[in-house]
């Protein structure tokens, strides 16, 4: 097995009826997995404490240069991000690039859109960065 190219992994958003669309203009995509620590040490353990992993958390950071018009991808993302009250939406990461299909899903979860930021630099491309936070445990979580 060789190296994986990050360009092949794309974020897709559910339009609300189970149909997924790629969010166009993606730059960086990072899936973060963290775990809190539980202290398992006692006075009998001596100078070193011991720990074990606790509850897991998972978030996705994404940066895009929106490629408009993109009503079913970016448009849906913006609608979900700016909704009040916030509601979770289903997202997928697919490994097949823009041609990715349901069989290419390597991550799938119901998530909230948070930290939805836009940058409008002088002499630069309009960019959007956002963070997805879990609403429920992922149903798919694999590298390849």
Q: Could you characterize the architecture of this molecule?
A:
By secondary structure, this protein is mainly beta. It has one domain (6-41, 48-141): Pnp Oxidase, Chain A (Roll), CATH 2.30.110. It has one helix spanning 71-82; strands spanning 10-14, 20-22, 26-39, 51-64, 89-94, 105-119, 127-134, 140-141. Strand 1 and strand 2 form a beta hairpin. It is globular, with a radius of gyration of 18 Å. The model has no long low-confidence stretch (mean pLDDT 93).
Task: Summarize the helix and strand pattern as letters.
Answer: EEEEHEEEE
Rg calculated over all Cα atoms:
18 Å
Q: So what's the CATH class? A: Mainly Beta
How much helix is in the residues? Answer: under 10%
**Low-pLDDT sequence parts:** none
Topology-level CATH name: Pnp Oxidase, Chain A
Ends apart, CA distance between termini: 11 Å
Q: Give the strand tally.
A: 8
Give the DSSP E fraction (strand runs of 2 or more residues). Answer: over 45%
Overall body shape: globular
CATH-defined architecture: Roll
Q: How many strands, what sense, and barrel or not for the largest sheet?
A: 8 strands, antiparallel
Question: How many helices?
Answer: 1
Average pLDDT over all residues? 93
Structural class: mainly beta
Compute the number of structural domains.
1
């Amino acid at each position: 097995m060789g190296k994986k190219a990050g360009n092949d992994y794309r974020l897709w958003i559910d339009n609300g009826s189970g149909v997924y669309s790629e969010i166009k203009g993606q730059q960086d995509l990072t899936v973060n997995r963290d775990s809190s620590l539980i202290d398992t040490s006692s006075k009998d353990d001596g100078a070193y404490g011991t720990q074990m992993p606790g509850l897991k958390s998972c978030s996705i950071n994404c940066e895009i240069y929106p490629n408009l018009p993109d009503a079913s991808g970016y448009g849906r993302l913006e609608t979900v991000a700016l909704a009040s009250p916030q509601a979770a939406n289903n997202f997928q990461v697919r490994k097949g690039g823009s041609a990715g299909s349901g069989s290419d899903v390597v991550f799938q979860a119901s998530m909230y859109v948070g930290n939805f930021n836009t940058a409008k630099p002088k002499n630069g491309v309009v960019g959007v960065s956002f963070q997805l936070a879990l609403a429920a445990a992922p149903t798919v979580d694999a590298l390849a």
